[in-house]
Amino acid sequence: MQSLSSFIILNTIMKRIVIIGGCAAGPKTAAKTKRVNPENIVELYTMENMISYSACGMPYYIKGSVPSYQNLIIRTPEDFKKQGIDVFLNHKCTRILPDEKSVIFNTMVNGVGEIKKVNYDELVLCVGSRPYTPKVKNINLENIFHLKVLDDGIKIKEKMEKSKSAIILGGGYIAIEILEAFVKNGLNVTVVERNHEIMSQFDPEISTIIKDYITKRDGKHVDFILDDEIIEFIGTKEFTGAVTRNGKTLHADFCVVAAGVVPNVELAREAGIEIGITGGIKTDNRMRTNIEHIWAAGDCTEETCLITKRPMYAALGTIANKQGRVAGINVNTDTNGVYEAFDGILGSAVTSYFDFSMSTTGLTETKARIFAKNSSIEPITATVTKRDKPGYMPDSNSITVKLVADKRTGELLGAQAVGVGDADKRIYTVTSALRANLTVQEFLHLDLTYSPAFSSTIDPLLTAAYKLKDEIDK
Amino acid sequence: MQSLSSFIILNTIMKRIVIIGGCAAGPKTAAKTKRVNPENIVELYTMENMISYSACGMPYYIKGSVPSYQNLIIRTPEDFKKQGIDVFLNHKCTRILPDEKSVIFNTMVNGVGEIKKVNYDELVLCVGSRPYTPKVKNINLENIFHLKVLDDGIKIKEKMEKSKSAIILGGGYIAIEILEAFVKNGLNVTVVERNHEIMSQFDPEISTIIKDYITKRDGKHVDFILDDEIIEFIGTKEFTGAVTRNGKTLHADFCVVAAGVVPNVELAREAGIEIGITGGIKTDNRMRTNIEHIWAAGDCTEETCLITKRPMYAALGTIANKQGRVAGINVNTDTNGVYEAFDGILGSAVTSYFDFSMSTTGLTETKARIFAKNSSIEPITATVTKRDKPGYMPDSNSITVKLVADKRTGELLGAQAVGVGDADKRIYTVTSALRANLTVQEFLHLDLTYSPAFSSTIDPLLTAAYKLKDEIDK
User: How many helices (H) and strands (E) does chain A have?
Assistant: First the structure.
């Protein structure tokens, strides 16, 4: 990775930089590239009627902690205009023409559909992802919702406020956040998850802790149907219920499908841009695709796992922002010049269900065991459940920390933390340890801050590391 | 650092291990050494009438968040007895005799003073620290308190509950914690600090943010007298007030002296044990002193700074615990055998004033500039003030993060974070980056977890790192 000085960039020639996508990576790329070289023409196109909003904030809007959806809008087209960036709303890209360095948009001008061709010097695809739509009969009935664009959030909230019950198809991060919103608003909710556990991004015994917490807290209002899946929605025009593979019939006022996302890569594929094995657009660490002058960033791209060095796919706002920053810098540089690198990700993630937080980074034991089949690592783990602050503190709570390491080298591979205590702080800390390939032996001596108001004298993280070290030494 | 297997240790011969000190390092050493080799005779001596309590918890007991001082007691002598560790309360060590491998204690037996000589195979000094007593006239008046042992906490709380005003001599961590307790309990408090700012462990502009917060929140009840010091206490038998060097006369119901601590090293020095330049007992990374079979751990020892590789002194429960663990392991090993190492500290610390948290690790700019005079580092810094969560979240708050790096190598040297937001989480994360000598360039790509409930898409830590990178590249 080479160092990049803004002074070098300012000497590059003026370019027309076309960015497609208005949610996270697109606006970030636009803002960064304009800041790095104000001489450039920077144009930001989106098929939506607004840009630069926090998609991740939608569950909190539905829940009611964010009073208006307008709070979720980060920057308006006018804000971008002030920075010298032109924003084009309601522009749906229909074709990329790499040979003539142009893109085709469908748009409306004065109520009349129009086709527009736009030339570029550099094209950055930030076309994001869309909800995965499982193959379920009648999935297009009314009152079956996805949660992707801001409009979805608005509609779900409206429906929720008039409803008493809901079904959530899926049991991952978004599902849990929506579940919280619905329970908070007094709904009875059935969660249908085809895996054996909800939150299967965690190891099974950790997922069980999450499920048990939800059940203990809200069992009267939340029903989990696991190891099963919806095969048919019931209703003629409007959704009234669902039937599962195991023969259960469920009834509810509406349904939210939260079964993950898939990257929007169709246009890219048609243009000859290489798609990775995870389904995302393949880029190098400069965010370049295989086609010259075409870059990609955000949810539409595939990443590299920093632990396994293999491709992985994660659609997260924080990654989109970082990639947008890197693309925004690099579109200004010559191919042989200095550049900024985006080396990869750890799969770090966090969410919460009311006071209970759940966070993970790097490999779970499950993922490590899969990786071990084709690598030389030898996964070993330790789990501790311990108070996050001294027991005498009134807000002391119990958290469970699981660490995964390679017995062979002693290097940490991943961590999971869940509990009413501060799980996220612990995982934050592990991300930098993973970035630096710290061994368990190095990690267990971390000079973490300590005060009874914030942690225990020996943090649960370190207790887990001590235990793991004992396992490694056995 | 070599790996240590408990199987090796079990083959060592049985030893009598005498540990002096009952607060943090002592009990930890005792528990660990007994666990590593249950065959050993482990004896724990303390001059106090209780052991194994959380000294750090005392401000929270005074404040009222911890209902009883008995909550602060972690383990009783009976708990230790069950583990096979003999505890001797009210045993004041008066002499160490390395040549005959014994120690002398003054104690009371049936109300009669007695002198006891105890032989050891290995002696571990965990004799802690005591409050620094500044040279102030009449400092021995009644109602002038220190806060070190549990009994001090009990007395201060009793006095506070009958009082309307107090003076705190000192403006560091403990002073701020006591200040919060007093303000919470309705007292008017004057803080007298001889430095230009309170919390001078932080860089001046960061300390100013802390002071401004306290003043804004509680200015009616808190008065800061800075750049000044108490030179005389007023009163005949009981304290009634104080006079400062600048001629101010202050009146209050009582005073707490919180001017830092000094290590208890007198006995060690008399016995020929080497004392380091910071005033703490000098040990190697195995916690051995210069005298064979005598070890030291906790507040009485001097540490090594992991950044500067130079001696530093920090009296913290978390360090005492870690050193106790290392000493507890190593007293069981042969000098040539495998051992556990305690390599040093970063000076990490945290505290809070109500909702405002303040945390630091590694070098401040001030310390880095001092270090730069005798080293090749070239300190460079960046400071950002930013919301810790997206602005639309109801509990989003502003925190200030300052990073310090070496412009020459790009390596991070330290970090400070303060604010109503979650400052401690950020510093936790930097401790592992410092442990691994991460550069700013590596750090700014950290794959931190993200959810609006926990952080912003680009964490303030990373924003500070971006800014610092720009400074480095200039």
Answer: 13, 25
Q: Which of A452, A340, A229 is nearest to A4 (CA)?
A: A340
Listed in order, strand segments (DSSP E) in A235-369 are 241-244, 249-251, 254-257, 261-263, 294-296, 303-304, 311-312, 349-353, 356-362
Say yes or no for a CB contact (<8 Å) between A429 and B424.
Answer: no
CA A161/CA A253 separation, integer angstroms: 11
Which chain B residues have a beta carbon less than 8 Å from that of A422?
A: 425
ipTM of the complex: 0.93
Element of type H or E holding A266: helix A266-270
Helix (H, G, I), strand (E, B) or coil at A319: helix
* 3-class SS letters over chain B: CCCCCHHHHCCCCCCEEEEECCCCHHHHHHHHHHHHCCCCEEEEECCCCCCCECHHHHHHHHHCCCCCHHHHECCCHHHHHHCCEEEECCCEEEEEEHHHCEEEEEEEECCEEEEEEEECCEEEECCCEEECCCCCECCCCECEEECCCHHHHHHHHHHHHCCCEEEEECCCHHHHHHHHHHHHCCCEEEEECCCCCCCCCCCHHHHHHHHHHHHHHHCCCEEEECCCCEEEEECCCECCEEEECCCCEEECCEEEECCCEEECCHHHHHCCCCECCCCCECCCCCCECCCCCEEECCCCECEEECCCCCEECCCCHHHHHHHHHHHHHHCCCCCCCCCCCCCCECCCEEEEECCEEEEEEECCHHHHHHHHCCCCCCEEEEEEEEECCCCCCCCCCEEEEEEEEECCCCEEEEEEEEECCCHHHHHHHHHHHHHCCCEHHHHCCCCCCCCCCCCCCCCHHHHHHHHHHHHHHC
CB atoms within 10 A of CB A277: 11
Q: How far off is chain A from B390, nearest CA to CA, in Å?
A: 8
Give me B250's structure tokens.
Answer: 């202050």
Contact between chains at A436 and B431 (C-beta distance less than 8 A):
no
Report CA A242 to chain centroid distance, whole Å.
Answer: 28
Residue among A343, A437, A451 minimizing CB distance to B56: A451
Torsion angles phi and psi, residue B3, rounded to 5:
-75, 150
Q: How many CB pairs under 8 A join A and B?
A: 241
Residues of B in contact with A351 (CB under 8 A): 451, 453
Question: How far is Cα B165 from Cα B71, in angstroms, rounded to an integer?
Answer: 27
DSSP characters for A166-227? EEEE--SHHHHHHHHHHHHTT-EEEEE-SSSSSSTTS-HHHHHHHHHHHHHHHTTTEEEE-S
Residue B197 tokens read as 């700012």
Beta strands B16-20 and B41-45 are: parallel
Contact B473 A5 (CB under 8 A): yes
User: In chain B, what residues touch A342 (CB-CB under 8 Å)?
Assistant: 445
In what helix (H) or strand (E) does residue A427 lie, and over which residues does it extend?
helix A423-435
Q: pTM of the prediction? A: 0.94
The separation between the first and the last C-alpha atoms of chain A, rounded to the nearest angstrom, is 39
As a whole number of angstroms, the distance between CA A280 and CA A259 comes to 17
Are A457 and B24 in contact (CB < 8 Å)? yes
Instruction: With CB atoms and an 8 Å threshold, state whether B438 touches A437.
Output: no
Max CA-CA distance within chain A? 74
Please report residues of A whose CB lies closer than 8 A to that of B425: 422, 424-425, 428
Closest-CA distance, B397 to chain A, in angstroms, reads 15
Mean pLDDT by 10 residues, chain A (474 residues): 44 84 94 92 93 86 91 89 94 97 91 92 96 94 92 95 98 96 97 96 98 98 97 96 97 96 97 98 97 97 97 94 96 76 95 97 98 96 96 93 98 98 93 95 95 93 96 91
> φ, ψ for residue A94 (rounded to 5)?
-115, -15
